[in-house]
Structures are given as C-alpha cells and as structure tokens.
Q: What sequence folds into this?
C-alpha cells in the first residue's frame, strides 16, 4: 500500500491521477484533511483516510497497512519541519518500509537568503537519520509559479523583479507529478535522490522574450534594484516580514541557487520535460 499525503492538493492530485494509470486504486491510500474534497478518489476506489500533519493520532491511524509513504511538503513554512517530523515518526512507528519526500533543488544550504527553505534540508536530514529507506525528490521552482512572480498585468507592465540574470530550469508541476508517480511505482527506494528540473535554464529575460513571442506584445524585463522593489512591495501594503520573505526568495534565484540542470526528470518521464515556450503557452492559453 502506498500512502500519498496532501492528496487533494495540486501536486498530490497530479501524483494520484498518474498512479491510477499504473496501479490499482486499492493499492493507494490518500491522506486528506477534508474527506468531502476527496469524493472523486473515493468513487474511484482509493482508500481515503482523514488526518493532518499536526494530528499525531490521525497519522498513526493513517499509516496502518502502508508500505510506502509520499510526504508532500507542507505549506506552513514556520511549522513545516515539526509537521514533517510527525509524519516520519508515524511512518517509522507503523513499520513503513520507505518514505519519499518532495524537497527543493536549492544548491547550497549555507548561503540561502530565504532561510525558510532550510526546512527542506532539515527534513531530508531527519529522514536520513530515521533509519527508513528513502527516496527524495528535489523539485525545481514550478514553471506554474511564473504568472504569480510577474503579475497579472505582465503584458501591459512588463516584468519588474530584482533577479538580475539569475536562471532557473523551470519545470511544470504536471511533469514533476507524473515523474514522481513513475518513480513510486518502479523505484525500490534504495536511498535515492532525484533532481527534478527542466532540460535548460532560463533567465527572466528569456521569460520576457518568450511571452513577447507568444503574445505578439512587447514584454520587457527590468532587473530591479532591491531597494526599489522593496519600496514597491511596501506601497502595495505588504507587511515587512512578507516583503523580506519574497525578496529572500528572489535573491536566491539571482544568486543561482536554482540553476542546476539534471536529466532525472526527463529520464523518469521517458521524454523531454516541457520547454519554457511549451509551458508558458499552456499556462497563459496563448
């Protein structure tokens, strides 16, 4: 039995959709916080169990009869590490044979500007120290996040971000979810780490040029000064703590933390991941 946490979230949904193409529903367990959001999974024969990362008794119950767990990273950045530890502890207590985790492809934990990302490295450490066999999926920044970065009026305003010529080998969430499902079905969980990235790194100059090409509208990229961008965030009414978190995230991109290309994603997909042009065309319906 394979348990997928966060099963009704964006990544969890994609993973389970792909698992259902490769294995029978009665071999899949979905951990959800709200069973009403998992009606389609129940209809398809998936074993839906209700629980949360904070509710240890519910995790203990969810792990019963499970051989392998996919721990999808929690979204509460301040509580994330403890939540992940709760899942790992419950898995170990229940005799689970393998735990997989969706981490991040950040290069150097000692030079991170966004310290909240340290939770991913700390979770990896905790899993390795648990004695459980593991598979770690280090996922690059989703291409799906580009519209959030550049804003809803990008075709009118262009891109104004403090990232210099920092590059990211963006990949679609759908490609990563499919590859994770492939690995979970085929992998023997022999303490393997996968680096999931696109086939090529792109700067936001490339993003701007691609959006220009696809839309026929000129989309400039302005590499903003950190102070000017910080002022813009404050003018939008964002609290300072949120503004600094965003700046830290973008600073890591500028410093090349995401710029690490691997063939792992393509190998597991059996094809090349979507290119920047293919992905943006789909995301913007162009």
A:
């Amino acid at each position: 039995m394979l348990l997928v946490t966060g099963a009704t979230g964006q990544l969890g949904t994609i993973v389970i959709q792909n698992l259902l193409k490769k294995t029978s529903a009665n071999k899949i367990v979905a951990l959800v916080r709200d069973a009403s959001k998992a009606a389609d999974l129940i209809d398809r024969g998936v074993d839906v169990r209700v629980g949360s990362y904070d509710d240890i008794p519910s995790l203990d119950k969810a792990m019963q009869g499970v051989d392998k767990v996919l721990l999808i990273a929690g979204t509460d950045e301040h509580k994330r590490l403890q939540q992940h530890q709760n899942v790992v502890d419950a898995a170990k207590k229940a005799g689970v044979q393998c735990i997989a985790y969706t981490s991040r492809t950040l290069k150097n934990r000692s030079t991170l500007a966004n310290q909240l990302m340290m939770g991913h490295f700390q979770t990896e450490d905790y899993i390795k120290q648990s004695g459980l066999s593991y598979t770690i999926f280090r996922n690059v920044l989703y291409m799906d996040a580009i519209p959030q970065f550049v804003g809803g009026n990008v075709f009118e305003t262009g891109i104004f971000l403090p990232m210099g010529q920092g590059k990211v080998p963006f990949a679609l969430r759908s490609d990563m979810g499919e590859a994770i499902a492939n690995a979970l079905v085929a992998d023997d969980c022999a303490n393997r780490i996968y680096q999931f990235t696109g086939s090529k790194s792109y700067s936001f100059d490339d993003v701007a040029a691609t959006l220009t090409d696809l839309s026929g509208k000129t989309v400039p990229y302005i590499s903003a000064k950190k102070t000017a961008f910080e002022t813009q965030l404050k003018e939008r009414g964002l609290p300072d703590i949120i503004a600094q978190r965003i700046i830290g995230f973008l600073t890591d991109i500028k410093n090349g933390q995401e710029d690490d290309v691997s063939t792992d994603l393509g190998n597991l997909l059996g094809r090349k991941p979507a290119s920047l042009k293919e992905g943006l065309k789909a995301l913007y319906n162009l």
The chain has a mean pLDDT of 94. The longest helix spans residues 240-254. The domain at 2-141+171-198+260-273 is CATH 3.40.50.720 (Rossmann fold).
